[in-house]
Structures are given as C-alpha cells and as structure tokens.
Amino acid sequence: MKPVAIVQQIGHDTPDYFADFLTAAGIPWQLFRMDLGEPLPASIRAFSGYCMLGGPMSVNDEDTLPWLRQEMSLVQEALAADIPVIGHCLGGQLIAKAMGGTVGPVPMPEIGWSRIHLPEPQDAERWLGGEQTVSLFQWHGEGFTVPEGARLIASSPYWANQAFVVGHKHLAMQFHCEVNAPKVRYWTIEERAEIESVQHHPSVSPADDILAGLERTIPQSNQWADRIYREWIKGLVHGA
Questions:
Q1: Low-confidence ranges of the chain (pLDDT < 70)
Q2: This prediction's pTM
Q3: What 3-state DSSP class applies to 207?
Q4: Residue 12, Cβ neighbours under 10 Å: how many?
Q5: 9 near 54, Cβ under 8 Å?
C-alpha cells in the first residue's frame, strides 16, 4: 500500500494515536513537518490517504503561511481523485475552506473534554460502533461552516459544527481524537495562562481537571479514535 501523508503544522501538535493506529494496522505513513520547513508533496496521488493535524494558527493566515494554501490544494486534488482525507481541528478547517466553506471565531472557545453527539444512528454506527455521544478533546477558538457537498454528522453543546463527511471517504473534525496523554499534558501545562484567560466560559475545562483525569480520559479517547480511524482506513487507495 502507498503511505498515508500526514501533515504536522507545529512542533507540539504531533500525530500521536493516529500514527500509532496506522503502524499497528500495518499501514505505512509519511510525515511532513511544516514547522521544520519541509516541502509538501507535489501531488497527493502518490499516497493512499491524506491527514492534516491541528495548530494554533488560523486557516485564514494563508497569505503569511503559504503552506496552508498548498495543503488546501492537496485537499482539492484528493477529493477529485477520491483519495481519503481526514482533518483534525485546523485540518478539518482546511478541508472546509478548501471546499468553499468559511472559518471564523466561535461564540465561545472549547478547551478540554467535550460531549460530541452524532444524532443520526447510522452515522453513530459507522463511525463510533453505535455510540451516539462520546467525550473527545477540544482546543479551538475558531470553527468551520459545513461546505456545499458535505454533510454534518456531529455537534457539541457549544459549537454545532463538529464533524462533517464528504461522500463515504472524507472526514473533517473540529475535535482532537488523535491526542495522547503527553500531548494533552504538555498543552495544558504550557498554555495554562490561555485556559485561565477564558475560564469563565462553560465550554472550557479547568487545567487541573484536565490533568487529573488523564488516566481515565485518554484510554476512552483512544477507544473512540480507534473506531473512527478503523472506518476511515476502509477507503484507503491500494496499489503501487
């Protein structure tokens, strides 16, 4: 199988459980580090799938961060070639904007563990093994609209547009189902000041609560991520 292309935007937003899952499944992958100035692939057709990770920048910074525009071009190429695309947080926003949607500030930021609800039983069965409401990690101040040609499948109490699908192979997510304990711990400790600055919002979890619950929350998150990724890899393109 051709490898899955994974784009990492910044040093501390790593592929984590997504890479662990692919490796355990025997699926090759190749990482492209935007924070290190590595070039993106000239074409996505050399890959079986395309994953974009998150980052603190805005999708709308494409004029100052030109690789964002390149990533969106690869999204358009992948959609045209039916090569599966998956986006986490900023990655999901890149998919939305590449398809003509918009990305902008949300009414309140979401930081911490959030209740993600899939109202349609068929979507819950496909992506979560039948579970319609799960807890997944969030850290965002902007959100995407659902572009034409996509279908919303998941919402949270504080931001309706949490995940959409395009056809049967492509998934854009606002949440971070790829996280592991070291990454959440690092974010929470290093960015505690940001958490405290927006602590008045009910959508933001206290830093101490996030840290104290990791032994319980991360295994649950990995369980849901496993189901999401297991469904996504069904569409990977095989061949040399």
A1: 239-240
A2: 0.97
A3: helix
A4: 15
A5: yes
Nearest to 5 by CA among 77, 63, 55: 77
* d(C-alpha 75, C-alpha 71), whole Å: 6
CA distance linking residue 169 with residue 150, whole number of Å = 11
135-184 pLDDT, tens digit each: 999 999 999 999 999 999 999 999 999 999 999 999 999 999 999 999 99
Q: In what order do the strands lie in the sheet with 29-33?
A: 29-33, 4-8, 49-52, 85-88, 170-173, 163-166, 151-154
**Cα of 57 vs its chain's centroid, Å:** 14
Tokens standing for residue 76? 């358009």
- Rounded CA-CA distance 1/17 in Å is 20
Helix, strand and coil in the chain, % to nearest 5: 40, 25, 35
Residue with structure tokens 């910044």?
A: 10
Q: Look at the chain and count its residues.
A: 240
Q: Identify the burial level of 37 via C-beta atoms within 10 angstroms of its C-beta, where 0-12 means exposed, 13-18 middle and 19 or more buried.
A: exposed
Q: 139 near 89, Cβ under 8 Å?
A: yes
Q: What is the dihedral of CA 75, 78, 79, 80, to 10 degrees?
A: 120
For residue 53, give the 3-state DSSP assignment: coil
